[in-house]
Specification:
Layout (H helix, E strand, L loop, with lengths): L1 E5 L6 H15 L3 E6 L13 E5 L13 H16 L3 E5 L1 H15 L4 E6 L2 H4 L5 H12 L3 E4 L2 H11 L5 E3 L18 H9 L7 E6 L8 H14 L2 E6 L5 H10 L6 E5 L4 H6 L3 E4 L8 H8 L3 E5 L4 H4 L7 E3 L4 H12 L2 H18 L2 H16 L5
The protein binds ligand GMT.
Organism: Staphylococcus caeli
EC number: 2.4.1.57
Keywords: Glycosyltransferase, Transferase
Amino acid sequence: MKIGITCYPSMGGSGIIATELGIKLAERGHDIHFITSNIPFRIRKPLPNMTFHQVEVNQYAVFQYPPYDITLSTKIAEVINEYDLDLLHMHYAVPHAVCGILAKHMSKKDIKIMTTLHGTDITVLGYDHSLKNAIKFGIDGSDVVTSVSQSLAQQTYDIIETDKPIVPIYNFVREKEFPTKPEVPTQSDQQLKDCYGIKADEKVLIHVSNFRTVKRIDTIIDTFAKVHQSIPSKLILLGDGPELMAMKEKARQLDLEDHVLFLGKQNWVSAFYQISDLVLLLSEKESFGLTLLEAMKSGVVPIGSTAGGIKEVIKHEETGYIVDIGDSHAASDYAILLLTNPERYKQMQARMLEDVAERFASDLITDEYEYYYKQMLEGNND
Ligand code: GMT
């Protein structure tokens, strides 16, 4: 199949899933055309059947704002015609699904469109009255719509009031990018710990995000503060965003500045999971939580909140623990329980790894997308 993919090419989870899926599909022999503002950051080596088409927006004095959406639509239409694409896979309802529909009209080809909803396009933008209609238009005008969890599908029905069927297809990780850590840390793991002043006997908790308020990093620091009182430990925080400075201040106020490590954006998060014992994602909105899955595949046991799709990723008391949003007491109790009971930790880790392999395998999820591509092309998508 000849597939056009549009996503945000930056470090967010939606861009990662779009890129990793593109790589999987290219490895299976499909022709993949990324139509994006930049080369997606996870693409590290050329694949013969993968092409990147850059969207460049010119600035003219007549425009108060550069018209990215129109330029993107024009570029998609050009690529549809030039490469005779079979289908578009748009990640995010606005602007990308809407741009796909516009591009379809511009290209004059009856191309099929799949749209994948990732979360923020519904759970945040969906409440913006000026965008809700555009989101609905993007969803209703797509041939197949997928969401990254059942929870997000339900939220879409509730918030956007569409009756378009929405197919939940979970996030996945390409397994070799997140090798499972060995039981005994390697020399290079200890070297990485040394770089950041983490002692061999200290436990490591990790959180990775874009530091938006919805990620509730305040709850993560409160959780760590309680754990740190009884267990020698460090908290690694990877990422950058609006809450960064406030969270640094919070760590200082709690006298934890030497133990909460703000390491900024990192390209190779996998190395940090190799040295971590627990991953925390205590968000108040989260459609899936790709960072959890990346950490779990690496062998790091998760504690998550009840938000959105997290409950579908972690099986409470079986593959990790779930706590109410804002409940740092419960989160720290579970963390201490796991970190002080090596047998319990090992059992949960083993069950978690089995579950990741069963439900979130990259081949399984790629098969699901491919199945719906075929259904669309055969006209069986209603
Ligand atoms: O988590 C973010 O804020 C980034 C965001 C994005 O749009 O890239 O991630 C969303 O998509 C990921 C991939 O499907 C999901 O795993 C994340 O849970 C989702 N984020 C939210 O719902 C807040």
